[in-house]
């Protein structure tokens, strides 16, 4: 028979650990936002992730942006410099998320707003793009970038991807760039994503994914949670979570290696039509 006191203690410990990880992630991205303004700091998703960085060894931020290398020169040329500099992802979700004029789009963990602003251009004035982020400094930066870009069809929301502050069946497409791995409750992320998508809606994200043979302990030896490594799901776990949330047409395609057994990957799925 399970001891209730032991169970409650373990649950409280997990909650405390999850809160600690979230605080570390928030602090890291707040520092990254401040670094953009100062033009010095850290980027994300190099080939040698280190503790304390999101998928990257420390680098100097410049006008090119580190994660911006995943975007075309044409895309970058239409963006405010700080939106490019603040690009901290491990891929380009817009390369796989087919956006149509008039679509409503949600970007999970929108950071400095690069994917929101690019999406806004694609969906046009008849569409709408939401950016969701939990870090006030990143939201301030993103809103400033949106004003500079003259984007009027965007809205940045403060909140968590485990509790998305949007109604059911509200968006056509959900995108995200190297963020889902940072969550300590992936099941909630995918359930919420499924909830806010309209029937027939599409998920198109890039994320860090581990090879199936890597245990949680193995992943932790390759980088910590804030480094986008320890919290990454395996390919099988990713597929299982998406299936459990109700998604179909799931594809997970690795694009490049970030560490031994760890890959940046394109994740696509569909919410079945009603």
From TrEMBL:
Residues 100-221 form the Methyltransferase domain. Residues 1-22 are annotated as: Disordered. GO terms for biological process: methylation. Gene3D superfamilies: Vaccinia Virus protein VP39. Its EC number is 2.1.1.137. It comes from the Bacteria. This is Arsenite methyltransferase. It comes from Actinomadura latina.
């Amino acid at each position: 028979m399970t001891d209730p006191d032991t169970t409650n203690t373990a649950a409280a410990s997990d909650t405390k650990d999850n809160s600690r990880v979230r605080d570390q992630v928030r602090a890291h991205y707040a520092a990254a936002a401040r670094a953009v303004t100062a033009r010095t700091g850290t980027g994300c998703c190099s080939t040698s992730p280190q503790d304390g960085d999101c998928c990257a060894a420390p680098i100097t931020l410049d006008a090119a942006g580190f994660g911006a290398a995943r975007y075309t020169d044409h895309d970058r040329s239409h963006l405010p410099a700080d939106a490019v500099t603040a690009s901290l992802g491990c891929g380009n979700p817009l390369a796989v998320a087919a956006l149509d004029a008039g679509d409503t789009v949600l970007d999970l963990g929108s950071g400095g707003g690069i994917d929101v602003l690019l999406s806004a251009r694609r969906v046009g004035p008849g569409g709408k793009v939401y950016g969701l982020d939990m870090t006030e400094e990143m939201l301030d930066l993103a809103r400033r970038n949106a004003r500079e870009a003259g984007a009027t069809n965007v809205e940045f929301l403060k909140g968590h991807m485990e509790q998305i502050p949007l109604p059911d069946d509200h968006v056509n497409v959900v995108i995200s760039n190297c963020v889902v791995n940072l969550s300590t409750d992936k099941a909630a992320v995918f359930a919420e994503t499924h909830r806010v998508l309209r029937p027939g809606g599409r998920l198109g994200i890039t994320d860090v994914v581990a090879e199936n043979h890597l245990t949680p302990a193995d992943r932790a030896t390759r980088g910590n949670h804030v480094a986008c490594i320890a919290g990454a799901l395996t390919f099988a776990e990713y597929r299982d979570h998406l299936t459990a949330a109700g998604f179909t047409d799931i594809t997970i395609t690795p694009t490049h290696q970030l560490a031994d057994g760890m890959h940046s990957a394109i994740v696509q799925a569909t919410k079945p039509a009603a």
